[in-house]
Each structure stands twice: as structure tokens, then as C-alpha cells.
Amino acid sequence: MTATKPVADPSAARMVSREVHLQRLTAAYITAGLLFMLLPGTFLGVWNLLSISSTHTAASLSPAWIQAHGHAQIFGWLGTFVLGIGFYSLSKMGNLPSFAVSRGWTCFALWTSGVALRWGVNISEWHWRVLLPASAALELGAFLIFFRTVSGHRPTQTSDAPRARQPWMLVVVGSTIGFLATLAVNQGVTMYVAVLGTGPALPHALDQHLLMLPTWAFLVPAVWGFNARWLPVFLGLKQPSAPPLYAALLTAWLAAIAMAFGFVTLSTVLLPVAGLLAIAALHIFEPSIQPAKLNGVHASFPGFVRGAYLWLLVAAIMSVAAALADQAGGIWGASRHALTVGFLATMVFAIGQKILPAFCGGRVLFSKNLMFASLTLLNLGCALRVASEIPAYEGYLRQAWSVLPVSAVIELAAVTLFAANLAITFLRPPAHLLTQIERP
What we know:
Oligomer: single chain
Distance between the termini: 44 Å
Order of helices and strands: HHHHHHHHHHHHHH
Largest sheet: none
Strand content: under 5%
Radius of gyration: 22 Å
């Protein structure tokens, strides 16, 4: 009698194949986000700031170019990261449908096309009355595919008892609703601008009022939600307190809605309240109850995460000052920079360099020192920008104009190091294979 050859478990093979395809999908989103961050995002932002500094006025630069930079940073970089991490994390946590990966690629194609088209239209003004709303439609369509896919997420049950929704999940869901609202409003205002016919840039007052939606209704709550999930593990903090976390989310939403309807002072007064509630809920500045998990990252990791929340408070407080005293856009600009670079970018540079290598094939970050250098330069550049933008724009100190280009170049160096560290990490073999190669 001949022995039969054992047959591999087909379900295990399917799981491995699905994991490989999911990692490739996530790597595509992260790579695209890095490209948007470097080229149409940071590089154009540096170019804009150099142009403004040379003339000592923001009026010399096209508003469409400024908005192209902002859209590439918020949607092209951070939005793409959120979508990629969303597909990966929800697939790992629960039971997404088998076609989730193929839908992820469809979403990727629509999203990156929409963001790239928006940037190109703002820069070139080519057929903008048609292509501007079309870019918004592509982005909204991509998000609806994402939303339809992840709404089928069902957490894996380990028992027959129903599993309660954890606070971090509800906050992430809240930020997702903010994302949808932002894209729906974006679709509406691009159609309004197309009918208005004055150019691809949104009117200044409208743009100012709507900037609160993608930041405080979407990105900031998304960070709070993922922090509530990861920081008890990464920093050894206590589990988040649900009531103040929900209150922070609600307050941030109210601030965004108030700003959209023109209640500027009320909106800005709510921002420090939301920030303090989130800090209290997440126990950011309380002693850790367990040692921080620093495997794969620089030892300064906890300090930069906590420092990001100081930037959040600075941004919120400066928004109040801007509502009361801004004359030439300097205080508003400094506040937005403290939020987008000081809080959001610092958090992405810190948390991202810990989780993204694992998400994209079980890799280990290439260089802890590059991580430290990128975070240090980012915070230094942000500090110089925030400190100099107010006296320069508001006319308090003419010499401050010479500091702005320096801050821009430092931040460009920071994002280049961040992108290079991740790019080299993705090009290296996964951790288990790297260990075998390096083993004597």
C-alpha cells in the first residue's frame, strides 16, 4: 500500500493569500500617501512659502495654489493613510467580505485619481469648471466604496455573548462620519465654485469656515480613536475613559458645525475644551501603568506622542486668539500649522513608523535614528513656523519673514527623512526573512 501525500489545508492557503494581497494593498495606499505628502503637498507648500516670504505678503500668491497644497496634505497624504489603515485594520479585526481587497483596489484607483486631478486642476486651471467637481465626485465615490465595504465589518466573536462596542471604535466611526460629511460638502462647494465661474479657488471666507470640517470633525477625532486603541499598549497608559472621550468628539463636531455656519468665536472657544477632554480621556500626561513598548522604534517615541498633544492645545488656544485679534491671517495660519504639522504630522511620524512596517508585510523599521531625526526636525520646523508666522504676517517684526523659509526647508528635510525611512523599510525583506539572511 502506498502512502498518500498530505494535502495542504485549503482554508489556510486562502488565508495566507488574502493576507499577502491585503499587505500589498496597504503598501500601495501608504506609498501613494507618501508621494502626495512629498510632491504636491510639502514641496508645493515650501514653494508657496518661499514665494510669500520674498514679497512679504500672501496676496502675491494664487489662492488656488495654496488650496492645492492644503488638499494634497489633508486628503492626499492623511486621507490616503486613513483609508489604507482602515482597510487593513478592519480586515484583521473582523470578518470583512472576501471581495474587500478588490474593492480596496477600486477605491484606491478612484481616490488617488480624484486627489491628483484636484491638485492638477488647481495648479493649471485646465477645464476647471468640469474637472473640479469631477475630482470631488471621484473622491466621494471612493469613500462610499470604502464605507460600504467596512460597514460589513463584524468583530470576531469568541463566545455566544454579544460583544459591546469599545469606545475607540465608536470614536473612529464618528470620525468616519466626519470624513463623509467633509467629502459631501467638498462636492457641493466645488459645484458652487464651478457655477460661480470666478476660478478654481474657493472664496477665502468660505474656505476659512470649511477648513474646520476635515481637521476637527475628521482627522483629529480619527487620531483620538486610534490613540484610544493603541496608546494603552504602546505607552502603557490606562484604558481610555469613555465619557470624556465621547464628550471630546461631540465638542469637536459642534465646533466644526459652528464654524461652518459662521459662529467663529463660539467655534474656537470650544476647541480647547475638546482638546482637554481628549487629553483627560486618554490619560496622556498621567504616569504609565506599564512599560512602554519601544520595540522597533526610537526611545523618544513616548515623548513625541505626548508632545503632539501640547501642539493640539497650542493650536486650539491660538484659534481663539485668531478669532479675536487676527488682522492679516498670521494667527490663523500659525494655528492651522500647529494643528496639521505639530499634532497630526507628529502623530503620524511617531505612530506610523511603529505600525506601518508591520502592516506592510511584517517588516521592522529600517532606522530608529532616522525616526528620531525626522521627528526632531519636524517639531523644530513647526516651532519656527508658528513663532515667526504671527509677527511676519501681522506686521509686528519684519525680520520674522526671513525665518519662514528656514522653517519650510527644515520641515521638507523632515518629511524626506520620514518617507525615505519607510521606503527603505518596505524595500527590505520581512522581519523573519531578514533574520535568516543576517544570521551567520
